[in-house]
Structures are given as structure tokens and as C-alpha cells.
Amino acid sequence: MATLVSRNMIYRILTVVAACSVSITTLGADRPNVLILMADDLGWNDVGYHGSEIATPNIDQIAQAGIELDRFYTQPSCSPTRAALMTGKSPASLGVIRPISKNSNVSLPLEEKLMPEYLADLGYQSFLVGKWHLGKSTHAELPNARGFEHAYGSLTGGIGYWSKVHGGGYDWHRNGKVLRQEGYATHLLVDEVSTLLENRDKSRPNFMYVAFQAPHLPNEAPAETLSKYHSLQGNRSIHAAMVDELDQAIGKILAEYRAHGMLENTIILFMSDNGGLVAPSEDPALQSKMQRNALTLKSIFGRPIPVPGLEFLVSAFLDGASDNSPLPGGKTLVREGGVRVPAAIWFAGGLESGRYNGPFTISDVLPTILEGVGAVDSIPNNLRGRSQWQGLLGGVVETPDYVISGFIDGFSIYHWPWKLINNEKVELFHIINDPLEEHNLAIDHPEIVADLQLRLDNWGYRPDQGIPWLDVIFDPDTFGGEENRVPWVESIKE
User: Fold this and answer.
1) CB 3.0 to 4.6 Å from 237: which of 118, 131, 232, 419, for a disulfide?
2) Is 27 helix (H, G, I), strand (E, B) or coil?
3) How sure is the predictor about 7, in pLDDT bands with cuts at 50, 70 and 90?
4) What is the pLDDT of residues 31-90, one digit of tens each?
5) How far apart, in whole angstroms, are the C-alpha atoms of residue 73 and residue 371?
6) Are 71 and 340 spatial neighbours (Cβ–Cβ below 8 Å)?
């Protein structure tokens, strides 16, 4: 505990000095580095420390050496989670409530200040390695224009791991320029991190955001790793190999930080962007509406569906192989399996190991990181998220309301310890006592339902910036596939 007190005292001193107009650049060298590791579509029970059959020793190490975030909540799909991570705000108030399509001409609103911009004000050098998925129709929407000094990887979602193709367009870039590069995408991200650490500005603290594609569809993995999971059935074996590759990549990145003498002074946050994409249950009562529709299409046409857009939708809801058990539901849904994800934070220089049982949402990450690097005064007062840093140190913190937007099953609100779902029927759960959402208490507590519904109605929404499903069907967001149009970077408007 003495270490924690000492570190916190240093942070407070730095904050006071900064307030006295001392150069941020001067102070920057004393601040910890920040490493955010984000998996894509990782299920609750896809990690070893939750009991999975998949080997994840490096992810497990982060949770065991650091603090396991037992109630970490994201949004139920890619772009909304990333919008909340970057802004500290609610995606519903930003108009980002569904994944941003490759054909969409919208983005995370340009007027928003993003995490790398906050950290740049504190002297940080910021790198994005991996998936962006927050807009690409103009150069102003690209990560290099939104605070990242270096950006590498994909702009859209669901690229082929070897082909780097999404929806017919090649999608692999470095700093907004097409990069033709062979190799498995997960491996290439590690190589880029290694190069960036070697060539970083050592006079400045470093912010590295590694947004993996894995284990998002398409189901693709190297043969050597696949052989480790031959006993598993169907897509689960491929999914397991993809998670294994993800874990190996994280281990190599941690080794790079150790080799550069950075590990002890780096805040490391691991999470998934949402719950895993699960195969549908044989029980129709347990299937989502979209899963039922996908099964109907499969029964009529077989696989693959002759209409590419319909094949995309069927793949999206039938080809997943994550394990979210025991949590109900999965990606796209407001159920716990869609939004409560494996997560952990590790900071050898300032946090003791343990488990944090308080609610910690994706909107809380930005203010938490800012407080963690000693910049409490940099946290704006218009964020939906709240810093959880003092909670990580054993204190008491605010747990504000949290709204999640499922693009299939509407909106849900958490007013801890309560969770309200108002879709086809009104459901109220005491989510702390009933994390499996088995006991609907709406009839028993009409006054709580009314209060939460009012909070949800008054949340403040921006119109959905997504595109109609018909547009997806006729020009699909195909996972992987063959290249048949210009690379996405080259289609960007000036």
C-alpha cells in the first residue's frame, strides 16, 4: 500500500505543478505509459481465468497480476463501444448505436475530443495499431486526423485475416495509405507494435491502443494453432485457435514492453469490445429475432446464401462460436452476455492486484485513464463516464446511470443495482443479485420501472447515424471475401 500512496502523492504534485503553468512537455516524461488491448467479440467464457478450455495464459496474467474488472460493461457492438472509449460519452448521445458500415458517410462526430487528443495535451505520443471502425468517408474522420500520430491496420470491420479484404475492398493501411502486406493480421499487429516501441520518442510518455480484429468473423486461424483444438466441434475449434493467437500476441506485446524497460511504468487495460457472437440455441424461445430469421434463410437456401447480402446476415448470426456462459445472450443484444465482458487493469507502479466488483463501464475508461496518469484537472465535466481510479485503490466512487443500445433489441438502462429492458416486454432485474437475468421483477416494483423509464426517455439521443439494412443487403459488409473494388483507403473523399 505504501507504493500506492507514494504514486498518488506524486500524481497530486504533478497536477498542482501543471496548474501553475509549468510546461506539459516537461511533465510528460514523468507520467506512466498507457497500453489499451482490445479484443473483438471475445466471450465471457473464452478466457482461461473464467474457466475456458482455451489457453489464455497472458490474458490471465493481466487479470491475476493486476485487478480483474468483474463488472466491466461495454456496448453490444463494435463502433458504439469504440465511440464511448474514445470520448467518455454515451454512444446514444453521439448517434453511434450500430456498427458503422463501410458504405456509411458518417463517423464519430468530428466536434468530439478523443482520448489521444486529451493525452497529446499532456505530452503523450499516441499510436493506433489495429481496427478503427469510427468512420472513413473523409480524411478528417481517419485516426491520424483525430489525435493519433501513427495509425496502422484496418478502417472497417470483419476483414479477412490473410486477405485483409472487407466487403470487396482491401482494407489495410499505414497512416492513411494503402499497405499491401502478406501475413496473418494478428501477427502483423505485434510486429507493428514492436517497431513503434523501438522507434518511439523516448522523451515522451506513450499511449498505445492495440485494437485486435480477433476473434471477430471470419473464422480463420493458422493451421499450427488449429491443431491444438482439433477435439472441439465445428467453428468452436477455429474460434479457439483465434483466441489462442490473440493471447500469444498479447504475450509478445507484454514482452516487448518488458524488453524496453516500460512494463513497470505502464497502465495496461485489457477488454473485449462486446460479448461474443454465439451460435443460436436449438430452443426457439432462446433465439433472438435475427437468429431465427437467419435459420429460416438457411433452411430455404442452404449455405452459402446465393444473395451476398443475405449470406452476410446469416453469417453474422449463425457462424459465431464464442462462449458467453453463464451469461445470457451475446453480441448485438442488451443481455448481460452482450455487454459484460472479460476485462482487467494492471499497473505495477500504482495498483495492487485484486478484484474490482463495482460497475466499470466503457464510458468510464477515458476519465479513469486521465486520473491514473495524474491529470484529474483534464477531465471535462460533460462526460457520461466517471473515473473509477479511486475505486481501484479501494475507495468509493460514483456509479452513474449507463445506457446500452442494442441495434436489435432497443435500449436498456442501468441504475445500479437495477437494469431495465423495455423492448417487446418490460423487464426489470436486480442485476447484482441476478446477473443471469432470470427473475423479472417489473410487476413487483412498478415505481422503479417508472423511474428508470423516465431516466431512459430523458437520456438525450442523437439520431441513429447508421444506414438501412436494405443497403447492407444490396451492398453487403461481407466478412473477408474476394477483392473486387478499390481499397477503402483509396475511396476516401478529400
Assistant:
1) 232
2) helix
3) very low
4) 999 999 999 999 999 999 999 999 999 999 999 999 999 999 999 999 999 999 999 999
5) 20
6) yes
- State the angle between helix axes of 235-259 and 57-65 in degrees (0 to 180), rounded to the nearest 10: 50
Partnered with residue 38 across adjacent β-strands are 211, 271
Q: In what order do the strands lie in the sheet with 410-415?
A: 402-406, 410-415, 418-422, 426-430
Q: Residue 216 has which C-alpha cell?
A: 471477430
Task: Dump pLDDT digits (tens) for 268-315.
Answer: 999 999 999 987 665 555 567 777 888 888 889 888 888 877 888 888
pLDDT for the residue numbered 472: 75
Residue 28 or residue 107, greater confidence: 107
What pLDDT shows up at residue 4?
Answer: 37
Q: For residue 224, give the C-alpha cell.
A: 499450427
The H or E element containing residue 186 is: helix 185-199
494 class by beta-carbon count within 10 Å (0-12 exposed, 13-18 middle, 19+ buried): exposed
Dist CA 375 CA 386 (whole Å): 14
Grid cell 463495482 — which residue? Answer: 358
Active site residue 20: no
Is the sign of the CA dihedral 70, 71, 73, 76 positive or negative? positive
The angle that helices 289-301 and 308-318 make with each other, rounded to 10 degrees, is 120
Q: Please say if 78 is a catalytic residue.
A: yes
Q: What is the pLDDT of residue 11?
A: 41
Distance of alpha carbon 298 from alpha carbon 143, whole angstroms: 38
- State the residue for C-alpha cell 500512496: 5
CA distances in angstroms from 327 to 80, 341, 466, listed in the order given: 21, 10, 28
Tell me which of 50, 78, 216, 239 is the catalytic residue: 78
CB 218 within 8 A of CB 239: no
Q: Between the CA of residue 76 and those of 240, 356, 409, 476, what are the distances in Å?
A: 21, 22, 10, 21
Distance CA 198, CA 47 (A): 30
Domain boundaries, the chain: 2-278+325-400+475-491, 280-318, 409-457
Name the band, by pLDDT with cuts 50, 70 and 90, for residue 243.
Answer: very high
Coil, strand or helix at 165: strand
Query: How far from 250 is each of 36, 255, 269, CA to CA, in Å?
Result: 11, 9, 12
Of the residues 20, 50, 133, 139, only one is catalytic, namely 133
Residue type for position 349: G
CA 344/CA 436 separation, integer angstroms: 21
The CATH class given to the 2-278+325-400+475-491 domain equals alpha beta
Task: Find the range with the poorest average confidence among 227-236, 274-283, 416-425.
Answer: 274-283
